[in-house]
Structure formats: structure tokens, C-alpha cells
Write a structure and sequence with these properties.
- With about 180 residues, the protein is mainly alpha-helical.
- The protein has a domain at about 50-170.
- It has 9 helices and 2 strands, in the order ααββααααααα.
- The chain has helices spanning about 5-10, 15-20, 55-60, 70-85, 90-105, 115-130, 135-145, 160, 165-170, and strands spanning about 25, 45.
- The protein has a two-stranded parallel sheet with strand order 1-2.
- It starts with a helix and ends in an 11-residue tail after the last helix.
- The relative contact order is 0.12.
């Protein structure tokens, strides 16, 4: 069991994830391996959590979100929103173009990885499609906390494949397990 305080300095406050669900708040983001989720503290830290979905998408597409305010959970939320608003191809196109633009504006265009972005988009879209009666990102992520683990793609890709030059600029199929 991981105590909440072991992750964020609030020693003694225990959060049982499976009883209480994730906490949505702004701030630093803690990444947990899927195997450590049972009974673990789980904070979903959205740098843009104060924005509605519409405000978030608009701010992102207008380049109004700072690099410091755009965390992993915000990437996942954006993919979730696009998957709900667009057909699969359009959702992927919007996410890919937006993340590429975001990285360039932040001065780190080399951080954009085509395969990684597309794989996350496809995993989120498939999960969202199979999640009946889920209306908000908070509800969805509470049911699918595995998407909070930045290393989720390790189930599908070897490090060598995902960090290869072709994976940075084009689609590379998973080499460990299919995405579906």
C-alpha cells in the first residue's frame, strides 16, 4: 500500500483509490505503475482542470496553455475529448496537429513523437467507445486509471521500438502486443 503522504508530503492521510476514486486537482502529477494501483493513492493532476472541456480545447488550439500547465493527464483528457467529438480519423488528426504545434511553440519540437501520440489516441478512443454511460473525463478516468500511467505503452512497445527514429516521425506498429 502506498500512503498519500509518500507521494505528496501529506504523511498520514491514506487514500484508498478503489473506494474513493481519483482526486482531480491542479498541481504536480504522480505516475504509478498499474501493478501499484490497488490500494494506492491516486491523484489526477490536471494543469488545466479548472477549465471546462470547451474552454480547454479552445485554449489548447489557440496556443494559450503553457508547457508547465499541460501535464500527462491533460494530454489524456484532450485525446478523450477529441474521441468523443470527432470520428476516429479526425480525432487523431486534431490531436497530432495540436500536440506537434504545442511542442514547437514550447521550443521542444523534438519531444513530439508520432507513434506515441497516435497510440495514446487510439487506446483512449477505444476505451471511451467501450465505456457506456460515462459523461465526463473524471468518470471515465476513475474507471480507467491505467491511462494515468505514462508507461502504459510499455505493454505494447519495446523501448527500442518506441524510441526509434521511425517511431518519432511515422506510425510504427506495436512489437509486443496489439493495441486492440
Amino acid at each position: 500500500m502506498i500512503l498519500h503522504g509518500q507521494l505528496c508530503g501529506n504523511v498520514g492521510r491514506r487514500r484508498d483509490y478503489f473506494r474513493e476514486g481519483p482526486v482531480l486537482r491542479n498541481g504536480a502529477f504522480f505516475y504509478l505503475r498499474e501493478s501499484s494501483l490497488e490500494g494506492a493513492a491516486m491523484d489526477v493532476n490536471l494543469g488545466c482542470g479548472q477549465l471546462s472541456d470547451d474552454e480547454f480545447v479552445t485554449a489548447f488550439e489557440q496556443g494559450a496553455i503553457s508547457r508547465a500547465a499541460f501535464h500527462h493527464a491533460d494530454h489524456v483528457r484532450l485525446a478523450w475529448i477529441y474521441a468523443g467529438r470527432c470520428d476516429a480519423q479526425k480525432a487523431e488528426e486534431r490531436l497530432m496537429a495540436g500536440i506537434r504545434r504545442f511542442a514547437a511553440k514550447a521550443g521542444v519540437p523534438e519531444k513530439f513523437q508520432y507513434t506515441t501520440t497516435l497510440a495514446w489516441s487510439r487506446l483512449v478512443a477505444a476505451s471511451r467507445e467501450n465505456s457506456n454511460a460515462v459523461n465526463t473525463f473524471g468518470e471515465w478516468i476513475a474507471r480507467h486509471p491505467e491511462f494515468l500511467d505514462r508507461r502504459l505503452l510499455d505493454k505494447y512497445y519495446s523501448e527500442h521500438t518506441l524510441q526509434s527514429e521511425p517511431a518519432r516521425s511515422t506510425w510504427v506498429a506495436p512489437d509486443l502486443a496489439p493495441l486492440s
